[in-house]
Structures are given as structure tokens and as C-alpha cells.
């Protein structure tokens, strides 16, 4: 579903991505772990289009998206969530998701018909709100949500666009234990139908969700395999326990 | 055209550039350090010119007037900072635009009321009047030459102050990473006041030395403010070096363009067409330059390091 | 019906009835004043589309009023008299200028956009002053005005009044619909959080450019009507102070509020007349008034006008 092929990126003399290849099949959840500064964020940027890779390719569902811009990749079916919550604060919860759905359903250069009355969009938004557990809060402004609710909305915005693939950048960031557990359950439900790349520090989440794991250190994938196999690998162990590069 | 005329135009361009630099330097620092968009910066230039006129009338001495005007420009700047600008740093740019627009309206009208709507002129001091033989064929007014040197001196002084003094270090830090400055425990209020005072004084100073060259009239600061914005966009916001290079560039291009555009065009087109299009094209040149910079170097020629556009 | 619609219905009913209520067309002075305010309101509504809905503060918007006015005036001078043809010319010229300057200006955002629109506005102003054949600095008095299918009904008095009112109503309605349609929603999203809008799959700059061009077109129409009303065109229409005045009207009326823009326009025109009538130097009061408004009346005077809870910040 998502294929990363021999991706390279450097800033001057600093190589932040070195020959990275990851392949994630349909229905798979792949986790990416590594210490801070390992190049996870740079890799996410290259997948989502914020940065252009120096060489290599990113394929989504067989389509080469390496040179596409951020919005074109979303149109091609890439969904993502941000590590730092990024929503539309002056929009209601429902409208945040309705506009995400709108982006993928027809042109938005429409000037007359009231968008809030488009039933197709509202249906998707309500269904998504239900899915992420925000159906009681649809009319609340995003700026009035709690942190935990914002994380859910963040996911809801990505889901409302009906992506083919989901890029999750530390979805558990800042969540308490119960909230994390609930989100893990939610993601576990999604996993079968929606392939995802999960960047996460929370080991619980990784062991419960990931089918496979890549360990990124100093811009290189130093180990990969099932969570259990990677747990046993000596270099990787140091990395995901946050003890720096092995 | 003769070489002599060309040289004179170049000198005029450099001189205009120096004036622009004095204005743009304050504007770019105030914006770079405080993120404050001060439309009233141009009107402070006008205030400088009127102060010079006033103090020359009062004292009869140009040099005394310069000193008094600088002091008065500084005081007016600090008063504005204390009573108005200080309360706007954390506001939206829209609020800043509105408030400083109000100040412009007020001061322009005040100048009209106090000194009349007519254009005033001020002669350069006795000592600096007359012109000097530069080459065999080239004579150039001493006063204009002096303003070039003063501009250069201020540029050098500013450059050293920003590069090597503690306040300069803070200014540079503030222009790139404002959080760091407050993290250092520096009295931000005081830093802002210093930057603002210096900016106001520079603009006022530009007005003072411009008074004997250009017409002193209400609204004289408005157009030059916009050219100063063009300068800092070309140079890179927050960058003194960028402001200097861009000011010279804009000064030269504008001055040469106004004199040469029609001539150059008439070499290609018929004269009446050239004389119609020439002036229009000349007045557009600096904006075309700005547009080109925006396309090819959106952050300006010499952006302040780390500045985010 | 929601409150803005009721307020709008009231405003427009009043404007529609004014010529009947008062023996207005005897008092050309008052008619002129109201037409002036309506023309200002049209331009302000278009600027509010940029500032209020799009979060794009342009300080060069009056330039498009100037471009529209000159396009119409030059058309008239060239012997084109039908107002609908002139309208097409105005729209084409203003749209083209906005497309070019907007494409360049929107490479930036925030305060840079402000400075660049200011600079482009000034460039347009100087270009207009250099049109020697059309009066240069001094402007041009127009001896022929536009006609509608050969009739002079749109030239003055009640005819012109209702043409301007009709245009204001149409602009109000168009921007109202547009702001609630898909397009307006994307524009607000780009104002709220451009990065998120991009990651939702919107080519944000395209929508912003479209809004910029639409706003310019509306401003151009106000320019066309200004020519018809004033029978005169001059670069003064395009000065940056005029752009500043438009911002004042928009903020005074309340952001993202079309009713606010109309009320703001009437307020400014009336204040100028009233202050100006007893003090020639009324700007000595007007200037500090703006400063005080920003410093102390946080929501602007708009709070007095706008229905509670509808006002939103642009940032």
C-alpha cells in the first residue's frame, strides 16, 4: 500500500535519511521507532510532502507521489495526523470533519450553495464523529475542546477524508493512561481496513498495534521485524528504550 | 548623454539610497525585533524635517537645529512608544496598522495646521552650500556629498553596534528567536524602547538632512515609507546589511530610471510613445525589482539568519 | 432567519425607502452622501472578504477601485458608452491586474502580504498618475457618462441611486452566499490554520488567489460606479490612504460582517461630514479617535453594531 524506496535526504553534510526502504501492505500497521534526532520527523515530512527527498521514491497504492505537493498527496489518498494538534479552532467539531470530507468530494470552487447543508458531507462527518467518539460534541467549537478530545478530532479529520493510508505522528502524545488505552482500541479497530504507519514512543501502543517495526537510528533503519523480534535485537533495544544510538 | 551627467545621477542615486537606508534601518529593526508594523515610521521622517525647519527659524543655526531636532525626534518617538506602541506589541497586525494609521492622519494634519499646507524649503547651511569640483567636468553640491558620507558613517556605526555590542547582540537574537531573548531574562520593555528610540531618531535624522534637499510638506513621509517597505522586502526583513544593499539598489535604480527610462525607450520606440511610457515605467521600476526578488529570493537578498518569512 | 439577515433586510428596506420617505431628490447633497457611503460600503465588503474571511490584510485595496475607475473612464473617453460593456471592460482589466499582483503577493503571507500589497498599490497609483493622456496627477473630468441601452437613466438622481443600491445588494448577497459556500469554508480554514487546510487536501494559495481576484473585481465595480457618480476620475481614488480608510471601515464595522461594512461606511461618511462641518481640521480628531479605538475599545465600535456572538477575530 505504501512503499518507501531507497529514500535519501541530507542537509549539507548531515545525512538525515540514508537509503530508507519500508513497505507496508494492505491491512498492515507498521511502527517506526527511534531516539530523538534519529530522523523520524524528516522521514514523515518526506512522506507527507513537506520536504522533498534527494533521491528515492514514495509510492502510494502503486502511484508515485515522490514529487507531489502536500495537498496533492492528500488527494491521492494519504491521511495524516500531527504530533502537535492541528485543527481549525473557529470551526465546530462537525465542520472540521465536514471540510475534510469536502476536500475529497468534488471541487471546492463552489460559490453559492451553503456547504453546511450538503447532506453527503454531514453524513460522513457524523459517522466519523461517531467512530472517534465525539458524537456528543459535534456542535462545540474546536477551540473549546479538551486536549484529549482534540487528539480524537485530529484523527477524525484524517478519517473523514477516507484515506487509503494513514500516517500517525505520535497520536498518543500528551494523553493520560485511560485516554491512551481508548485510542489504542480505536486504532486497533481501524487497523484491518486501513493500513498505517505509526510513529510512537508509547511501547504499549506499539506492541498492541504494530504488525512490524522499523528502528531508525541516525537516519538508517538498523533493525526491522515483528515487535517481538525487534525487542530481542540488541541495537534496537537501546534505541527504543531511549538510551540513544547503540 | 555625457559621462558627467551619468556620474551626477549615480551620486544622486547613492544619496537617495542613504536617506532610504536611514529610514529603512529603523523600520526593519522595529519590525524584526518586535514584530511590530509601524506605518507611522514615515511620519517620523516628516517630523524630523519640520523640526529642522522650526529650529533653524528659531536659532538661525543649522547645526544647532540638527542637534535640537535629533533630541526632539527622540523624545517624540519615546513618547509615542510609551503612550501608544507599547500597548500594541502583542496585538494583531491589523490593530497595529489601524493605530499607526491614526497617528499618520493626526500628524500630517497637525503639520498642515502648524506650518500651513504649502511646501517649505530650507537652505543648506552656509558652510556646506556651494559645490565642489570632483573631476575636471564634474561639480557636485557639497551638502549632498556630505549627506552621503553621513549615511555611510551611520551605516558603519549601526553595523558595528549591531554586530559587537550587547544591545546589538540582543537585537540580532530578538530578530531571529524572540523566545531566547526573554529566556535570557533581559528587560524586553527596555530593549524595545531602545530599538524604538533609535529607529525614531534615525527616521527623524533622515528628515532633518532631507529638508534642504527635498520639499518639506505634509504627507512627505507617506511615499517614502512605502519605498522603505520595498527596501526591507528586497533586503530581507530584520537585516541591517540587507537594508543597506537594498537601499542603495533602490536609490540608484529609481534615480537613474527616472532620468534615463524615456531616453532608453526612445532609442527603440518612437519618441512620443517613449515619453508617454517612460515616466510610468520609471516609477514602476523599483516595484518590478521587488516582484522579481519575491519570485527568485522570497526572503530577500540578505535575510536575517533564521528569520522566517 | 438569523439576525444578520434581519439586520440586512432592515438596512436595505431603509435604503430603498429613503428616496420616498424624504423629499430626498430635492436635496442632492444628501443623496450624494448616501451614494458615497454605499460606494464605500461596496469596496469595504470586498476588502472584508479578504481580511475578515481570508485573514489576508491588504493595504492596497483602493488601487483596484482606481483601476476599475480608470478602465471605465478610458472606455468612456474611447466612445464606449453602454454601462454593461463598460462593466465587462472594468472586470477584465481589474481581474487581470489582480491576477498578476495577487500571484506575486500571495507568495508571502501575514505582515509581508500587507507590505507587498501596499507596494503594489502604490505602483498602480503611480501608473495612474503617469497617464498623461487622461489627466495625469490632476485626473480627468468626464463629459460623457455611461448609458444603459442608450438611456440616460443611470446617470444621476433616482436612477443612479437605485443602480448603486442594487449593486450593493447584489454584492452583499454574493459575498454572503460565497462565505457560506464550500469556497468560503476553505477560505476560513486557510485563515484559521493554512497548514491544516493544505493537509486536508486544499491547494490553499489557489483559493486565496481566487478570493483576492474576486475582491478586486468588486472593488473595480465600485470604481466604475464612482466614475458615474462623480463624473470625474483621479489617481486620488487609489492612494494608500484610501486603502487605509477601507481598513478602518472594515474593522469599525466588525470583521467578516457585511452589515458591519455598510454601517461602518455610513459611520465614516457621516463622521467626516459632521466633524468636517464644524472643524475644517477634523482629522486632528479622527486620527486620535482611531488610536483610542484600538487601544481601549477592544472589539472596535463594531460591538455596538454587530449582533452578539457573531464577531470573530481574523487571527
Could you walk me through the main structural features you see in this protein, from its secondary elements to its overall organization?
The complex is a heterotrimer of chains A (246), B (309) and C (315). Chain A is an alpha/beta fold and 246 residues long. Chain A has two domains: 1-77 and 163-246, Rossmann fold (3-Layer(aba) Sandwich); 88-162, no CATH class. Helix content of chain A is 37%, strand content 24%. Chain A has helices spanning 40-48, 70-75, 93-104, 119-132, 147-160, 177-191, 203-209, 227-232, 234-240; strands at 2-11, 14-24, 29-33, 55-60, 63-64, 78-81, 165-169, 196-199, 212-217, 220-225. In chain A, the strands form two sheets. Chain A has a six-stranded mixed beta sheet with strand order 6-7-8-3-9-10, with helices on both faces. In chain A, strands 2-1-4-5 form a four-stranded antiparallel beta sheet, with helices on one face. In chain A, strand 1 (2-11) and strand 2 (14-24) form a beta hairpin. The longest helix of chain A is centred in the C-terminal third of the chain and has 15 residues, at 177-191. With 309 residues, chain B is mostly helical. Chain B has one domain (16-296): ABC transporter involved in vitamin B12 uptake, BtuC (Orthogonal Bundle), CATH 1.10.3470. Helix content of chain B is 74%, strand content 2%. Chain B has helices spanning 3-34, 41-59, 62-83, 93-115, 142-164, 166-176, 178-183, 188-210, 220-235, 240-268, 271-296; strands at residues 131-133, 139-141. In chain B, strands 1-2 form a two-stranded antiparallel ribbon. In chain B, strand 1 and strand 2 (139-141) form a beta hairpin. Chain C is mainly α. Helix content of chain C is 71%, strand content 1%. Chain C has 13 helices and two strands, in the order H-H-H-H-H-E-H-H-H-H-E-H-H-H-H. Chain C has a two-stranded antiparallel ribbon. The model of chain C is unreliable at 305-315 (pLDDT under 50). The chains are: A alpha/beta (246), B mainly alpha (309), C mainly alpha (315). Chains in contact: A-C, B-C. The A-C interface holds A 48, 69-71, 74-75, 80, 82, 86-91, 95, 99-100, 102-104, 107-116, 118, 157, 161 and C 174, 177-178, 180-186, 188-189, 192-193, 195-204, 207, 210, 312.
Amino acid at each position: 500500500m505504501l512503499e518507501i524506496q531507497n529514500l535519501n535526504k541530507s542537509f549539507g553534510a548531515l545525512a538525515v535519511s540514508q537509503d530508507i526502504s519500508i513497505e507496508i501492505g494492505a491491512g498492515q500497521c507498521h511502527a517506526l521507532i527511534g531516539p530523538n534526532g534519529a530522523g523520524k520527523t524528516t522521514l514523515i515530512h518526506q512522506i507527507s510532502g513537506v520536504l522533498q527527498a534527494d533521491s528515492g521514491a514514495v509510492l502510494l497504492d502503486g502511484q508515485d507521489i515522490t514529487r507531489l505537493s502536500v495537498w496533492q498527496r492528500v488527494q491521492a489518498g494519504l491521511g495524516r495526523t500531527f504530533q502537535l494538534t492541528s485543527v481549525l479552532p473557529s470551526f465546530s467539531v462537525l465542520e472540521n470533519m465536514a471540510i475534510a470530507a469536502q476536500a475529497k468530494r468534488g471541487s471546492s470552487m463552489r460559490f453559492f450553495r451553503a456547504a453546511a447543508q450538503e447532506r453527503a458531507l454531514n453524513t460522513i462527518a457524523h459517522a466519523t464523529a461517531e467512530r472517534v467518539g465525539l458524537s456528543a460534541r459535534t456542535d462545540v467549537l474546536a477551540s473549546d475542546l479538551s486536549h484529549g478530545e482534540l487528539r480524537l478530532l485530529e484523527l477524525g479529520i484524517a478519517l473523514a477524508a477516507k484515506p487509503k493510508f494513514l500516517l500517525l505522528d505520535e497520536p498518543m502524545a500528551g494523553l493520560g493512561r485511560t485516554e491512551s488505552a481508548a485510542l489504542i482500541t480505536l486504532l486497533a479497530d481501524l487497523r484491518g481496513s486501513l493500513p498505517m504507519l505509526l510513529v510512537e514512543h508509547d511501547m504499549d501502543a506499539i506492541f498492541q498495534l504494530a504488525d512490524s517495526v522499523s528502528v531508525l537510528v541516525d537516519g538508517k533503519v538498523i533493525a526491522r521485524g515483528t515487535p517481538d523480534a525487534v525487542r530481542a535485537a540488541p541495537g534496537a533495544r537501546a534505541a527504543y528504550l531511549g538510551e540513544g544510538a547503540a | 548623454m555625457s559621462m558627467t551627467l551619468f556620474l551626477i545621477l549615480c551620486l544622486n542615486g547613492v544619496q537617495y539610497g542613504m536617506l532610504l537606508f536611514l529610514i529603512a534601518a529603523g523600520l526593519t529593526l522595529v519590525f524584526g525585533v518586535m514584530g511590530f508594523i509601524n506605518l507611522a515610521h514615515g511620519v517620523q521622517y516628516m517630523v524630523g524635517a519640520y523640526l529642522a525647519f522650526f529650529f533653524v527659524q528659531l536659532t538661525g543655526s543649522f547645526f544647532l537645529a540638527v542637534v535640537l531636532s535629533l533630541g526632539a525626534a527622540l523624545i517624540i518617538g519615546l513618547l509615542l512608544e510609551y503612550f501608544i506602541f507599547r500597548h500594541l506589541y502583542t496585538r494583531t497586525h491589523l490593530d497595529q496598522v489601524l493605530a499607526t494609521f491614526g497617528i499618520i492622519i493626526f500628524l500630517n494634519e497637525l503639520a498642515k495646521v502648524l506650518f500651513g499646507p504649502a511646501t517649505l524649503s530650507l537652505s543648506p547651511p552656509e558652510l556646506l552650500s556651494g559645490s565642489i569640483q570632483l573631476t575636471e567636468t564634474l561639480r557636485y553640491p557639497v551638502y549632498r556629498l556630505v549627506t552621503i558620507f553621513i549615511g555611510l558613517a551611520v551605516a558603519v556605526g549601526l553595523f558595528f553596534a549591531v554586530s559587537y555590542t550587547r544591545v546589538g547582540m540582543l537585537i540580532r537574537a530578538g530578530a531571529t528567536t524572540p523566545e531566547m531573548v526573554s529566556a535570557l531574562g533581559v528587560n524586553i520593555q527596555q530593549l524595545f524602547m531602545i530599538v524604538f528610540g533609535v529607529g525614531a531618531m534615525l527616521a527623524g535624522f533622515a528628515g532633518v538632512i532631507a529638508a534642504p534637499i527635498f520639499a518639506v510638506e505634509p504627507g512627505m513621509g507617506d511615499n517614502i515609507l512605502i519605498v522603505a517597505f520595498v527596501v526591507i522586502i528586497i533586503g530581507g526583513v530584520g537585516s541591517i546589511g540587507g537594508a543597506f544593499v537594498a537601499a542603495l539598489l533602490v536609490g540608484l535604480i529609481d534615480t537613474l530610471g527616472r532620468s534615463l527610462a524615456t531616453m532608453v525607450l526612445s532609442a527603440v520606440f518612437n519618441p512620443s510613445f517613449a515619453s508617454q511610457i517612460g515616466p510610468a515605467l520609471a516609477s514602476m521600476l523599483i516595484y518590478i525589482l521587488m516582484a522579481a526578488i519575491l519570485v527568485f529570493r522570497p526572503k530577500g537578498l540578505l535575510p536575517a539568519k533564521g528569520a522566517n518569512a | 432567519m438569523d439576525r444578520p439577515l434581519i439586520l440586512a433586510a432592515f438596512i436595505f428596506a431603509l435604503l430603498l425607502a429613503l428616496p420616498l420617505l424624504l423629499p430626498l431628490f430635492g436635496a442632492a447633497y444628501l443623496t450624494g452622501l448616501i451614494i458615497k457611503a454605499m460606494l464605500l460600503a461596496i469596496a469595504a465588503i470586498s476588502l472584508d472578504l479578504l481580511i475578515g474571511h481570508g485573514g489576508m490584510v491588504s493595504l492596497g485595496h483602493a488601487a483596484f477601485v482606481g483601476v476599475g475607475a480608470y478602465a471605465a473612464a478610458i472606455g468612456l473617453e474611447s466612445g464606449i458608452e453602454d454601462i454593461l460593456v463598460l462593466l465587462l471592460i472594468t472586470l477584465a482589466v481589474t481581474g487581470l491586474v489582480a491576477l498578476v499582483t495577487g500571484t506575486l503577493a500571495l507568495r508571502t503571507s501575514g505582515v509581508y502580504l500587507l507590505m507587498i500589497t501596499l507596494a503594489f498599490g502604490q505602483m498602480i497609483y503611480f501608473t495612474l498618475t503617469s497617464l498623461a493622456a487622461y489627466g495625469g496627477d490632476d485626473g480627468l473630468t468626464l463629459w460623457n457618462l455611461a448609458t444603459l441601452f442608450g438611456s440616460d437613466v443611470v446617470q444621476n438622481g433616482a436612477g443612479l441611486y437605485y443602480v448603486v443600491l442594487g449593486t450593493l445588494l447584489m454584492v452583499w448577497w454574493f459575498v454572503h452566499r460565497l462565505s457560506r459556500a464550500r469556497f468560503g469554508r476553505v477560505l476560513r480554514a486557510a485563515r484559521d490554520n493554512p497548514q491544516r487546510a493544505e493537509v486536508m487536501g486544499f491547494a490553499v494559495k489557489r483559493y486565496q488567489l481566487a478570493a483576492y481576484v474576486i475582491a478586486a473585481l468588486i472593488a473595480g465595480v465600485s470604481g466604475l460606479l464612482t466614475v458615474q457618480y462623480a463624473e470625474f476620475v483621479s489617481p486620488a481614488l487609489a492612494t494608500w490612504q484610501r486603502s487605509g480608510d477601507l481598513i478602518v471601515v472594515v474593522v469599525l464595522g466588525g470583521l467578516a460582517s457585511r452589515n458591519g461594512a455598510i454601517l461602518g461606511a455610513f459611520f465614516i461618511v457621516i463622521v467626516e461630514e459632521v466633524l468636517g462641518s464644524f472643524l475644517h481640521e477634523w482629522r486632528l480628531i479622527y486620527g486620535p479617535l482611531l488610536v483610542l479605538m484600538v487601544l481601549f475599545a477592544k472589539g472596535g465600535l463594531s460591538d455596538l453594531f454587530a449582533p452578539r456572538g457573531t464577531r470573530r477575530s481574523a487571527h
